[in-house]
Queue: 2 jobs
Job 1
Amino acid sequence: MARFDLHPELLTPDAFADYGDVIAMDGADKRVINDGTTIRYHDLAKIDVADENGRPLVSIFRASAVQLPLRLWLMERHPIGSQVFWPLSAEPFLVVVASAGPSPNTGDLRAFHVPPGTGVNYARSVWHHPLISMNATSDFMVIDRGGNGHNLDEVRFPDDTDVMLHGYDASKS
Amino acid sequence: MARFDLHPELLTPDAFADYGDVIAMDGADKRVINDGTTIRYHDLAKIDVADENGRPLVSIFRASAVQLPLRLWLMERHPIGSQVFWPLSAEPFLVVVASAGPSPNTGDLRAFHVPPGTGVNYARSVWHHPLISMNATSDFMVIDRGGNGHNLDEVRFPDDTDVMLHGYDASKS
């Protein structure tokens, strides 16, 4: 029996750079529009879905809350499209990713704590765990790819491998 | 001096069909995913931004609140791209639209009350007033078109024309 303990680190653009974009208003390109009545925080993620057969899909995901520590079970990737998750509640959430490659390497997993008011955009082919909502059932706006083409790979962790995701401890970040 | 008084009607997909999509979880195509932990409300809007020079932009708009009645001043349209507005607060908002055509006809304006948990997607070329937030400064996730090409027309109402937008009165809807 192998066991891996994953402790989330705080999400930052630098730490997440190999996996995609951090979506946030802080540091964004701000533009005053509509005769001064609105500020546009412009172009927050590299949406990568519009190949010749692809089109952007807007969906809402409603995720059940999990208890931590959580035994992770599944990693997935979208080989031909990016995927945005933007939280519609004020709850933080957790993401777990692994570097690109033919399959996710258990020793290569990283977990990130995503603070309220922040989203992520997984770059194409980045391995990630399905949505992990804490505290309460939570909704997320999702922008990913629709259209023909193979856009989902899934890999389950072996039964004899426990990958345990723990809660975020700000004092250790 | 000409005066037009606009009274919002409740947003419904049928009433809004000529202008674009109502984005809502009610009535959506629901799919259970991620081994039963998540429900996907699938493909909620016809995103129409990915022509040969276009790409999807994700931005956040922060709109100042207005006082009603509001004298409307400006209509705009995006001739080569759709535009999603999804509210990130629990506040309702108002949209004002006019039928497609070379310029918005003042007598042809319609106003809609968008209840909390609901968004809109303006179809390309649909005339609409800039974002109208009530009650409090509010944030919206916006998905529109980036890339080269002429994608903004604006028309201001004449000084001698007062187009007054009133609050939504549910008892009259």
Job 2
Amino acid sequence: MRHYSGQRRMLLAVDCIIFGFDGKDIKLLLIQRGLKPEQNKWSLMGGFLQPDETLDESANRILKQLTGIEGVYMEQLHAFSNINRDPIERTVSVAYFALIDIHQYETQLNDEYHAEWFLLNKKTRLIFDHEDMVRLAQKQLRYKAALHPILFELLPEKFTIPQLQDLYEGVYDAMFDKRNFTRKLMSTGLLIKMKGKDKSSSKKGAYYYKLDKKKYRIKQASFLNFVSKAEKFL
Amino acid sequence: MRHYSGQRRMLLAVDCIIFGFDGKDIKLLLIQRGLKPEQNKWSLMGGFLQPDETLDESANRILKQLTGIEGVYMEQLHAFSNINRDPIERTVSVAYFALIDIHQYETQLNDEYHAEWFLLNKKTRLIFDHEDMVRLAQKQLRYKAALHPILFELLPEKFTIPQLQDLYEGVYDAMFDKRNFTRKLMSTGLLIKMKGKDKSSSKKGAYYYKLDKKKYRIKQASFLNFVSKAEKFL
């Protein structure tokens, strides 16, 4: 085996940021760190990159080992490299993130694991630079959700406008004007009004909608407005 | 000094993708690799992360050492981790990219260095996975340029619409309809028409424009259309 000489090798870690929506709130999945330092403090799901795996594979393995969750598409976010980010030894960490429907993974995420969902907008103190990682993932999620209808996939088959608004308000940690929000939603042409109404939250009730999946598939990439059909170049 | 035990340390590299515009074409800066394997083959500017630097610092050091160029804002793109991407030994590489005005860096990029500009759209064979890196950077550039007026910064103080169109066509490697392109440009409200005309490329001439810098500063982030004023959350 040949090697590059005179170069220092370092530890590479992977940390997973999993956002979840439970129909009402946006949450963040955390575990208690299993090793020193900061043992038992709240942490993202992290581990070291192994010689026989890529970063993507590593992220999936770590998430499964620590939470039981598998089959989630995680996106690579950013490599964090502050020199003293890990007090034990120099470790560069590549953060991954995903947004999932909490109910869909309930059976995977069982009591065997000690992972817990925390309200995202009620900040929890995390180890190392994990709060920076979460902040960047949140920024990226907001950017994507403003351009692409990605949040629609987190809702059940039938949903109401107030439910969708709760979701957007959770992601942006802000209140949106109801009329404007509804108007913009309708202008996307992605929603199909159904006959029934949800009467659980108000007397008047809220109509159920479903996603126009055909249009959704077409519109997913076509948010671009300056360069026409720019999505075909992506 | 404490260490994590039982973990394999690896090499971490940084590779820099520098796109440039010379007023006519989009180009890619390359060097001939200085060490084995693939010695003398065309390569991105790369090197190993050192113990005393962050990835951002490393990217800037490497670019300066290999090309003389400094003071360029490079954005972190992606960490590439295929197991055999470097045939000598496992090396994970973090790619950075930037788009610069070639003329602005002409004096820095002198003959002392052996860096050369290549036409981006005339693919050059590169070492390792560097072609994948360039492809991803190009995709990212197209995404950003479709949403934000970032390309306007590459033009001289006074420019014509055909010049701007050349730039967009270079980035997207496509031809745009002249009338549509002009209409979209004008609708941004970012251009101020000047009195003089450039008569060098046609008899009729093309009006000079300049960027409305105040509007540009405001509009830079406000591309978002679904969530109103979403940029304030980014």
